[in-house]
């Protein structure tokens, strides 16, 4: 299999004049971008960065971030991106854990890097006019170009993403060039991307969805349009100006785009393919997206940093909530909860834990320096995802939540996603999250946290649930109206914050 640097070089040879990356006023063809990547790679080599070294990036989605990512692929270095909002102690931990030798940062992350005691020991590259580095990216661009175009092979490490770390320390997920290329090829195939597509690079490049968008475009000589920070108005303007052909976002970002007043007056006709991942999408949002975009293809992608693709549903609007069937590089099973046994497969419609085959081309091989995490998640050649779900009579997977999210109320196991999807259909509900709150009678009380966009009472929402046919034991016993439903920077619902009373009630 080709390594990623050679894969990029192939795009340069096929389509040297095609626009490869856009970032504001910066528009680079494949040939132009390749020369900059070679210079940056040469500059990194002069700094002593060698094959197998980790490079920490604390950057937003900008052409410099994408350039450093590709430069590492040519060098054989391991690109290790962090959330640009990372705190000093998070940077300290990731540097120590990875053993990184060099770090790049920009203005929005400069203070955290300056306050990181470990970062001071590294060579630091300042990007975009930031201060506090040993040198700047402009210095690298002036360096002699890398003489040998590619120093990596398919078996070398390419990337290490850190999991979000909602509980405990984040875990490093190392992935080889062959893992990354297989995932990118599957992304192209499963989203039916054509030669020369143009994608919106808004999912952060420290997240698996962002990385996949970047790599996939190079495989089809496409264009990656950088969006440093999500803003629905600027995203809408960029879609129209750059004639974006496909979107790959988390549901929260789609929600904010279609809810923005500029949406109705923006030309979105260039977008023909929609893809989403990272969380389930409720029925109301599915219907809105179909009405706004009239997509040729609407893909629900279910996966993780560890194993990029678990399942794919290319007709997401036809069976809302379905995650589809295993991707082209994968096999999945649903096994009995807490069994730890990959052969203990549950029958149709019975809820269990979703597991994925570690022999899949996209599957990682284990966490970085975390044998404890390996022992918990890797069993009998399968990856235990920690997600719950069931398979219907068509063989389609439905993801119901995390094993930790399961609500046990009155002795019944209750998944919050079904209730959330139902409540989302009420016209006065903007966002909803359902959790189990400790209760002396029920054990856990089903509680719905609602962000309203119209007047509605608890009784009206309860009647909505009753009239829908929702089983009585699943109905929320309590409603809380909040200003915002807490989410991570990439839109993941943070139920733990609601359980811990870390939310702002709606002002009366």
From TrEMBL:
Name of this protein: 2-furoate---CoA ligase
Domain AMP-dependent synthetase/ligase, residue spans: 10-368
Span of domain AMP-binding enzyme C-terminal: 418-492
UniProt keyword list: Ligase
Signal peptide residue numbers: none
InterPro entries reported in the protein's UniProt record: AMP-bd_C (IPR025110), AMP-bd_C_sf (IPR045851), AMP-binding_CS (IPR020845), AMP-dep_synth/lig_dom (IPR000873), ANL_N_sf (IPR042099), ATP-dep_AMP-bd_enzyme (IPR050237)
SUPFAM superfamilies to which the protein is assigned, alphabetical: Acetyl-CoA synthetase-like
């Amino acid at each position: 299999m080709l390594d990623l640097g050679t894969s990029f070089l192939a795009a340069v040879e096929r389509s040297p004049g095609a626009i490869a990356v856009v970032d504001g006023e910066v528009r680079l063809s494949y040939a132009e971008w390749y020369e900059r990547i070679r210079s940056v790679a040469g500059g990194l080599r002069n700094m002593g960065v060698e094959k197998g070294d980790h490079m920490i990036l604390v950057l937003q989605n900008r052409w410099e971030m994408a350039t450093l990512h590709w430069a590492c692929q040519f060098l054989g270095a391991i690109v290790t991106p962090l959330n640009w909002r990372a705190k000093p102690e998070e940077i300290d931990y990731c540097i120590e854990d990875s053993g990184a030798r060099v770090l790049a940062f920009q203005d929005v992350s400069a203070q955290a890097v300056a306050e990181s005691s470990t970062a001071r020991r590294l060579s630091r590259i300042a990007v975009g006019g930031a201060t506090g580095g040993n040198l700047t990216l402009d210095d690298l661009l002036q360096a002699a170009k890398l003489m040998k175009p590619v120093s990596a092979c398919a078996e070398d490490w390419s990337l290490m993403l850190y999991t979000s770390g909602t509980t405990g320390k984040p875990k490093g997920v190392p992935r080889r060039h062959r893992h990354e290329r297989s995932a990118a090829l599957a992304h192209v195939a499963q989203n039916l991307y054509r030669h020369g597509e143009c994608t919106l690079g808004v999912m952060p490049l420290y997240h698996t969805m962002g990385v996949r968008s970047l790599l996939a475009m190079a495989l089809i000589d496409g264009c990656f349009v950088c969006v440093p920070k999500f803003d629905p108005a600027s995203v809408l303007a960029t879609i129209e100006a750059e004639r974006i052909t496909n979107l790959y976002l988390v549901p929260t970002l789609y929600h904010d785009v279609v809810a923005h007043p500029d949406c109705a007056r923006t030309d979105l006709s260039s977008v023909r393919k929609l893809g989403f991942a990272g969380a389930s999408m409720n029925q109301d949002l599915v219907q809105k997206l179909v009405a706004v975009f009239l997509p040729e293809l609407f893909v629900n992608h279910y996966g993780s940093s560890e194993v990029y693709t678990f399942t794919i549903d290319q007709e997401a609007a036809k069976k809302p909530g379905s995650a589809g069937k295993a991707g082209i590089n994968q096999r999945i099973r649903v096994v009995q909860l807490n069994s730890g046994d990959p052969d203990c497969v549950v029958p149709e419609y019975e809820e269990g834990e979703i597991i994925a085959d570690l022999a899949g081309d996209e599957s990682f091989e284990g966490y970085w320096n975390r044998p404890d995490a390996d022992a918990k998640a890797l069993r009998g050649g399968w990856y235990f995802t920690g997600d719950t779900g069931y398979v219907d009579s068509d063989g389609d997977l439905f993801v119901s939540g995390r094993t930790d999210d399961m609500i046990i109320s009155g002795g019944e196991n209750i998944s919050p996603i079904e209730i959330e999807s139902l409540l989302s259909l009420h016209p006065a509900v903007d966002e909803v999250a359902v959790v189990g709150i400790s209760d002396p009678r029920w054990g856990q009380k089903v509680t719905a946290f609602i962000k309203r966009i119209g007047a509605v009472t608890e009784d009206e929402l309860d009647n909505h649930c009753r009239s829908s046919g929702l089983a009585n034991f699943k109905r929320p016993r309590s409603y809380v109206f909040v200003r915002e439903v807490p989410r991570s920077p990439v839109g993941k619902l943070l139920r733990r914050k609601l359980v811990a009373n870390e939310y702002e009630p709606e002002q009366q």
